[in-house]
Amino acid sequence: MNEPLKRIMLVEDDPDVQTIASMALIDIGEFDLTVCSSGREALELIDRIKPQMVLLDVMMPDMDGPTTLAEIRRLPLASQPPIIFMTAKVQPQEQQRYLSLGAIEVIAKPFDPVSLADQLHAAWARLQAS
Amino acid sequence: MNRPLKLRTTIVLIFGGLAFLTTTLVAMLVGANARSLAEHDARLRLEAAATEIRSELDRDMFERFRDIKNAATLSPLFTESNAPLRREWFDRLLSTYPDYAWLGFSDLQGKVLTSANGVLEGQSVSARPWFQQGRLAPFVGDVHSALLLEKALPNPSGEPMRFVDLATPVKGLDGQIIGVLGAHLSWQWARRIRAGVLASIDEGDHRIEALILDQNGTVLLGPDEFLDKPLVLQRLDAPTAVATSHVLVWPDQQPYLTTLVKTTGYLDFPGLNWSVMMRQPRAIAFSQAQKIQRHVLWVGLVAAMLVSLIAWFLAGWLARPLVALSRAAQRVRQGEPGGTLPDARGYFEVASLARSLKAMTTTLESQHSDLAELNLSLEGRIARRTAAQNLMQEVATAANEAEDLDDAVRFGLERLCGHLGWPVGHAHRVLPGTTDYVTTDLWHLDDAERYAPFVEATHRLVFHKGDGLPGMVLARNAPVWATDVTQLRGFLRTEVAAHCGLAAALAFPVTVGGRTELILQCFADRALPEDAESIAIAGFIGQQLSRVAERLAAAGRVAEREGRLSAIYNSVLDGIITIDASGSIETMNQAAETLFGHHPGELIRRNIRLLMAEPFASAHESALARHLADGTGDFLGTIREMEGLRADGSSFPMEIAFTDATLGAQHLLVASVRDITERRAIERLKNEFVSTVSHELRTPLTSISGALALMARGTAGSISDKAMGLVAIARSNCDRLVRLINDILDLERIEAGNLVFEFEPVDVAPLLQRAMRETADYADKYRVGLEVAPAASGAVVWGDQHRLLQVLGNLLSNAVKFSAAGSTVTLALTRRDGMVHVTVSDRGRGIPDEFKPLIFQKFAQADASDSRQKGGTGLGLSIVKSIVERHGGHIGFSSTVGEGSTFWFDLPERHIALVPEHPLPRGDGRRVIVCEDDETAGEILTLHLEEAGYHPARARSAAEARTLLATGGFVAMTLDLGLPDQDGLSLLAEIKANPATAAMPVIIVSGRPDPGTERLGIADWIAKPVAPKRLIAALDQIGFVSDRPSVLHVEDDPDIISLVTEALRPHAELVSAGTLALARQALARKRFDVLLLDIGLPDGSGLDLLSTLDTMIEDTRPTVILFSAQEPHPDRRDELAAVLVKSQASLDQLAGLIEQELSQRQAAGLAKLSSGATV
Fold first, then answer.
1. SS3 for B22-81, per residue?
2. Does the reported pTM lie above 0.80?
3. How far is B1005 from chain A (nearest CA, A)?
C-alpha cells in the first residue's frame, strides 16, 4: 500500500490556526485539504471526503478531539484513516493518553507550519512501513 | 469382760486359795507320811505274823519231831509185850495233841503193829515214804494227802485231809532197829497255827491271809484258788529267813501287801523248807494311811472354808469404806444433789484417801466452774471477734466495690453501729479550704424519732478545729473513745445527748491524701468503758473509707484525663487510626469514622486495608510486612497518597502516614489519614488551569508563530527585507515566549512534585546521539560543531528518557549558545564508581566567578540581554538541576572565563541484568516481554497490557529481549520484527532453539503480512498498527496451558478476595471481579479454568453467571465452584462442581478443592494438547 499522502482532513475550531495550518499544508505540503471547524462537521464529511489522514485538534468546544476520534472510529467506513492529534497539552502522559486512544501521533502546539507537511509525510511513511 | 475383781472377792479367793493350798499340801504331806508309816506298820505286822507262824510251825514241828524221836527212844515201849501200853500211850498222845492225826508203830516190814485208836493197825505202810525213810533215819515228810487215812479218819472240816509225816526208826533194847515209829500231823495243825496268829493280829476285817508254801512253791495252805498249785507271782523273790514284804499284784489283779518268810527249822529239826506267805489287800493294809489322809483333808477343807469366811468378812470390812467412797464419788460425779464424799472414817488408809478425794473433788469442782466461766466468756469473745472479722471483711469488700463515697460511708456507719449495738452514727465533712466541719446527712439511726433532737442539734452546729469529739479526733488523727459524752469536756451537744439518752461515743477519721475529709461518730445508749477492739474496728473502717475516697478520686482524675484526651482525639480533623502489627484496627477517632463513613466501632478489629483501594492495600501490606520483618523500607513516617475506600464502596483520594507509638513493650502503629479530595481537586484545578492556561497561551501563539513562519518562508508572498527583519524579530520573541511558557509549566510541575517521570532503563550512549541529532539544527545555526567522544557503551541508567533528553538538549543548546562560531561542543560519557558521568564541554566564553553561585537559579543569567538574544528563558538550568536530582544524580560545572565551560551530571548506573525495579508481580506469572523498538508503539502496548492484567517488560532491541529472557519467568512475548539490531525472525528462531524458551508463546507484531502462523511455531501474527485489544485477545487466547491455571474469583468482599488470592497464589493465577458486570467482561475476554463464585454480589446473584457459562463451548467452560455465605438452591446444585460455604470451609479446603478441579481439567487439557490441537 504505498499510496502517497494526498488527502488530509483538518479538524480545528480556531480560524487563525486553520489559516496557518491550511497555508502550511496546502501551500507547502501541497495536500488536498478539507478543513472542518468541528467534530460534527468532520463526521458528516469524512465519509464523502475519505481522507487518508485526519489532523484532529484536541481542545474543541462541543465535541473534543478524543470524542471525535471515537466517533470516527465507530463509523462504518471502508477504511479508517489514521488520526493525528494536535494539542497544546504537551505532558508526556497526556501524549500517551492520546496515543492510547488510537491516534498514531501527537503534534504539539504551537507547531511549526513549515515542517508540518514533512511531519505528516513521515508519519505516513512510518505507517506504510509497518 | 475384764472387770477387775472386787477387793472382797480377791481377798476371799486369795485367802481361801492359800488355805486350801496349805491344807492340801499338809494333807498330802501328812498323808504321805501316814501312809508310809501305815505301810511300814502293816508290813511289820504281816512280817511279824508270818514270822510267828513260821516260828510256830518250826517249833511245833520240832516238838513233835522231838516227841516222836523221844518216844522212839523208849525202847521198852516198843517191845511186843508192851503193846497195850503202847496203844494206850498212843491214844493218849493223840488226844493230847489233836494235831496228831495218826500215830503208829510199824515193824520193819511195814506192818502197823500199833496205832492210835487202832487206825490202820495191821495194815501195811511199807509203801509209804515215811516208812521207807523212817527206817533209816528220822524223817519229816512234806505235806501230802493220804487217801487211806482220809477214809479212816474223821474229817470234820470237810476239806481234803493233808498230813505231814514224821517217822523215826525205833531201836530195840539191843539197839537194833526194830521198827518205825511214825506219826501223821494233821494239816489242821497248820490251820490252827495260822488261825491263831491271824486272830492275834487281826482284830477286824483286815483280810489278812496266810499261805504256806512248800519248797517248790506249791501252796500247802491258803485260799482255795491257790491250793495245791504252785504260786505264780510276779516279782516274787525267793523266800528268805528274814521276812520281806512287797506290794505285789496277785493274779486277781489286785495289789496285796505280801510278806514271805522261809521256815528255818529249829534246833535239830531241819525244817521242810516251807515258806510262809502272808498277804493283805494293799488298800486295807494302807487303809489306815488313807484314813488319816482323808481326815486331814477334811479338816483342811473345813479350815479353808473357815478361813475364807473370815477373809470374806475381813475383806468386807476393808472394802466397805472404799465402796462407800466410790459410790459417793459416783454420785458427786453425776451431780446428784447432796452427793458429797463421806468424811474421813475407817482405817487410816481409807481415811486419808477419803480426805484426799474430798479435797480433790472440791478443787476440781471449783476449777470446773472456773473453766465453765472462762469458756463462756471465751465463746463470747470469739463470737465478738468473728463478728468483728466479718464486719471488716464486709466493709473491705464494700469499699472495693463502692462507686460512691457517701454510700460507702453510710454502709460503714450502719455496719459499725450494728456490730457495736449502738443506735446512732453519723458523719461530719470537712469544709473544703477550712478547718471547720459540718455534719453531712449521712446518718444511721435505730430510732429516728427518738434521736431527732440530736440530729437537729448536730445539724445546727459548725465545728471548728478542736471542737468536741471531732476536734479530738483531728488532734490525734486517730479514733477517740468517749465513755460518756455527757461528762465529756468540750462536747458541744451534752444536753441533747443526755436528753436522748446517749452516753458512750466513738469517733474516727477518714483521711484522703493525708487530709482528714470525714469524721465518723457512733453513739451508744449507755456509758461504756473503752474497748480496744471496737476502736480497732472503727480505725479499720476509717481506713477502708479512705481507700474508697482515694480510689474514687483517682478514678475521677483518670476519667477526666481520659475525657480530655478523648475530646482532643475526637476533635481533630484528621482521622487517627491505631492498628496492631497485623493491621487490625484498635481504635478509630471520630474524624476517621466520619471520613470513611463507618459507624462507631464498626471497624474495630478489622484490617485497615479495608479502608484502602487496590493496589494500595496490597502495597501497604507488603510495606508493613517488610517493616515488621526487618524494619527496612519507609513504612513509617512517609506520607503516602492513595485511594481510600468508604463504607459505601466509594473511593476518595487520601493521604496516610504511619508512625510508631511505643507503649512499654507494645508497639502501636498510628495512622493519620487526611482526605485530600479537596487538595486533589485544587491540584487538579491548578493542573487544569495550568494546562488550560498553557493551552490558552499556546493557541494564540500557534497562530502568531505559524503566521510569522509562513511569512518568513515566503508562502504568503514576498515581503521587503525590512519587513522580513521585523518578522524575524517577532518570530524569535514568539519562540521565546513559547519556550518560556513551557519552562514555567515544567518548573511549576517540578516544584509541586507533580512532574511525572517515567523511569525505565535508559542506555545513555544512544541518548547522547539522539540529543546531538536533535540539537544539530540549532548548532548549525550558530555554526558550532557537535561531537561525541567515543563513549563507554553499556552505560545504563534508570531514568525518564524524555527528561534526560531535555537535560542534554538544554546543556547542549547552552553550550552552543555560548560558543564561538566554528568551535566545537563535545559530549562525553564515562562510567566510574557505579555512576554514569556525562559532560558537555564548550570552548565558549565561560562563566564569570560572581555568577557561578547563581547559575542554577531561576531567571539568573549572566547577561540578560545576551541571553535574550540567544533565546534563553533563564529557567533551563534550574529545570535541568531538578531533573537530574530527581534522577538521583548530581549536576555541576567548571568554567574558566575565556576558555570555556564544562557542564557535567552524574546518574546512578543501572544494570540491565538486575531484576526490574517494579516488584515483580508476586508469582502471578503473567509476565510478557514486549519487544518493540518503536517507543510509542511500545508504550501503547505496555499500557494496554498492564490494563489487561499482564505485567509487560519492555525490550527495545533483540539484545534487551535476550537479557530479559535470560531472567526467565515470562509467559509470552510480543515480537516486533523490525528490531534495530537483529531481524525479529532470527531472534524468533533463537528463542525456539533454546529449550528454556522454546515453549514460550511468541506473538509477532509486524507490518508484513502473515506468512502462516503454524510454520513459524508462533502463537499469533498481528499486523501493525497493533490494535492493543487484538494483541490482548491473542495473549488471552493462548490460554497458557501451564502449571498456573487461571481462576476467576467473583466476589465483592475485598477481604475474601485478598484471602483467597493469598491462598491460591501458589496454585493459580487469580483474576477477581467484584460485580457481575466485571465478571462477564472477564469471562468474555479470557478463558478461565475455574470460576469461583460468590452468590451475593452488588448487581445480582453470582448464580446468574451460570447462564452466561451455558453459552460457552464445552472446552472453554470453566469449572464452577461456589464459595459463598449462602447455600444454593438444591436445583442448581448440578451446575456446580462443588459448594463451599464460607463460614464452614477453610481456605485450605478451598485451595485443595480448586487444585483438584484444576488437575482434573489439566489432565483433560493435556490429553487434548497432545492430540495436536492448535494453541
1. HHHHHHHHHHHHHHHHHHHHHHHHHHHHHHHHHHHHHHHHHHHHHHHHHHHHCHHHHCCC
2. no
3. 9
| C-beta atoms of A93 and B709 within 8 A | no
φ, ψ of residue B1042 in degrees (nearest 5): -120, -165
Residues of chain B neighbouring A17 (CB-CB closer than 8 A): 699, 702-703, 706
Q: Does A72 touch chain B (CB under 8 A)?
A: no
Please give the single-letter amino acid code of residue B143.
V
Q: Does A123 touch chain B if contact means CB atoms closer than 8 Å?
A: no
Of chain A, the end-to-end C-alpha distance in Å amounts to 11
Kindly identify which residue of chain A lies nearest to residue B935, measuring between CA atoms: A96
Q: Please state whether the peptide bond connecting residue A110 to the residue before it is cis, i.e. omega within 30 degrees of 0.
A: yes
DSSP one-letter string for B210-221: EEEE-TTSBEEE
pLDDT tens figures, B1043-1058? 567 888 888 877 777 7
Number of Cβ atoms within 10 Å of the Cβ of B1155: 17
In A, minimum Cα distance to B1028 occurs at A100
Are the beta carbons of B206 and B284 closer than 8 angstroms? yes
pLDDT in tens, B292-342: 778 877 887 888 888 888 888 888 888 787 888 788 778 877 776 665 666
Q: Does A61 touch chain B (CB under 8 A)?
A: no
Q: CA-to-CA distance for B396 and B399, rounded, in angstroms?
A: 5
| Cβ neighbours of A105 in B, within 8 Å | 936
Residue in B with minimal Cα distance to A129: B1007
Residue A55 distance to chain B (closest CA, Å): 15
* Of the partner residues B697, B758, B1025, the one whose CB lies closest to the CB of residue A92: B758
* End-to-end CA gap in chain B: 116
A125 contacts chain B (CB < 8 A): no
State the complex-level ipTM: 0.75
Q: How many CB atoms lie within 10 A of CB B826?
A: 18
Residue B832, number of CB atoms within 10 A of its CB: 10
Nearest to B702 among A100, A111, A114 (CB): A111
Distance CA B504, CA B521 (A): 11
* Nearest-CA distance B741 → chain A (Å): 11
Determine contact, residues B702/A110, Cβ cutoff 8 Å. yes
Across the interface, which of A21, A109, A114 has its CB nearest the CB of B699?
A109
Q: Strands (DSSP E) along B833-899, which ranges?
A: 835-842, 890-896
**At B326, which amino acid appears?**
S
DSSP string for residues in B795-835:
-EEEEEHHHHHHHHHHHHHHHHHTSPTT-EEEEEEEEETTE
**Cα–Cα dist B101/B165, whole Å:** 10
Do B406 and B370 meet the contact criterion of CB atoms below 8 Å apart?
A: no
* Distance to chain B for A44, nearest Cα, Å: 25
Of B276 and A84, the one with more pLDDT? A84
What average pLDDT does chain B have? 79
Give the three cell numbers for residue B284: 486295807
The neighbouring-strand residues paired with B751 are: none
Nearest chain B residue (CA) to A113: B706
Beta bridge partners of B576: B672
| B759 φψ region: left (φ > 0), alpha (ψ -120 to 50), beta (else) | beta
Give the model's confidence band at B1141: pLDDT under 50 very low, under 70 low, under 90 confident, else very high: low
Treating both helix axes as pointing N-terminal to C-terminal, what angle do B721-751 and B677-713 enclose, rounded to 10 degrees?
A: 160
Contact B188, B296 (CB under 8 A): no
